[in-house]
Amino acid sequence: MKYLLLTPLLVCIAIISIFFHGSNGNRQLPNKEQLNILTNNVKVSEELYLKSKLSQQDFHRFNYLTSILRCPICANETVLEAPSKLALFIRVEILQMINEHKNNRYILNKLVDQFGNSILLLPPRSDNYLLLWLLPLLLVALSLFVFLRFIFNNRERRLNGHK
C-alpha cells in the first residue's frame, strides 16, 4: 500500500527534476515522450529520479549493485526489477550508502551481513562446493571399482574351480 502511495511521489519528483535539471542545464518542461515513460513505468520514474540526484558514475554503480543482488522475497528477480517493499528498502539503502561514498565491497558486505549469501545472484564458492561436486564422482568410481573387482574375483574362482 505504501509503495502505491510512493509511486505518484516518485513521478512528481522525476518531472520536477527533469524541469529543473534539463539535459543542457536549462529549465525545460518534459516532452510528451518523457511524460509517457514517467507515467507508464514506476521503475523508470524511480531511475530518472535517482539519475537526477546522482552523478553518472554513481548511477551506473547503483544499477550494477542492484542488478547483482537477488530480492529476498521475489523468486529469481534482482533487487532492481523486484516490486516488493523489501527490494525498495534495499534500493534506498544502497542509494544512501552510495551518497555516503561507500565503496561497492563495503555495500555488498553490509547487505550479505544483513541477508546472508543468498542475496547475491552469484554467491561465493566455498570449500564445501568442491566436496559436493567431487563426492558423487568418487562414490561412482569406488562403486565401479568394487563391482569390477567382484566380477574379476568371481571369474578367477570359476576358472580355478573348473580346472
From TrEMBL:
Q: What's this protein's function?
A: Possible subunit of a heme lyase.
InterPro entries according to UniProt: C-type_cytochrome_biogenesis, CcmH/CycL/Ccl2/NrfF_N, CcmH/CycL/NrfF/Ccl2_sf
Q: In Gene Ontology terms, what is one molecular function of this protein?
A: metal ion binding
Name the species this protein comes from. Paraphotobacterium marinum
PANTHER family named among the record's database cross-references: CYTOCHROME C-TYPE BIOGENESIS PROTEIN CCMH, CYTOCHROME C-TYPE BIOGENESIS PROTEIN CYCH
Which keywords label this protein? Heme, Iron, Membrane, Metal-binding, Signal, Transmembrane, Transmembrane helix
Q: What Pfam families does this protein's entry cite? A: CcmH (PF03918)
Q: Which residues cross the membrane?
A: 130-152
The name this protein goes by in its record: Cytochrome c-type biogenesis protein
Q: Name one GO cellular component term.
A: plasma membrane
Q: Which Gene3D superfamilies match?
A: Cytochrome C biogenesis protein (1.10.8.640)
Q: Which domain of life is it from?
A: Bacteria
* Domain CcmH/CycL/Ccl2/NrfF N-terminal residues, every copy: 56-155
Spell out the family assignment given in the record's similarity comment: Belongs to the CcmH/CycL/Ccl2/NrfF family.
